[in-house]
Design goal:
Order of helices and strands: EEHHEEHH
Oligomer: single chain
CATH superfamily: His-Me finger endonucleases
Helix content: 40-55%
Number of strands: 4
Strand order of the largest sheet: 1-2
Largest sheet: 2 strands, antiparallel
């Protein structure tokens, strides 16, 4: 039985890690692990934006912040699976409303 070191004292079994992941996906995004895997597979197993595969941690679920501000989603506004770097950039752009200025600067 594989063990993962947790953020707190002690270790978690593979089953506990899988249960926690399933719970977080259901609670935050109203999706199952199978639905996450289907989206990721449809993207070729890579980030929807930069097209890079995950390195050390799983890719993040991206949802439309206009529909559901914060960390939780209704499940209908999930846009895709992205890497942590792209997710952070999206969050910054959306929270500061600077997409128009960026497009103008880059002349897009």
């Amino acid at each position: 039985m594989s063990k993962y070191k947790g953020l707190t004292k002690g270790f978690y079994t593979t089953e506990q890690v899988a249960q926690r992941r399933a719970g977080i996906l259901k609670h935050r995004y109203k999706m199952t692990v199978e639905e996450y895997d289907e989206i990721l597979e449809s993207q070729g197993g890579v980030c929807a934006i930069c097209k890079k595969p995950p390195e050390f941690i799983r890719l993040a679920v991206d949802h439309d912040q206009k529909c559901c501000p914060g960390r939780r989603s209704c499940g209908k506004c999930v846009r895709g699976i992205v890497c942590q770097r792209c997710n952070a950039v999206l969050g910054y752009i959306e929270s500061n409303g600077i997409l128009g200025a960026i497009r103008k600067y880059l002349k897009l």
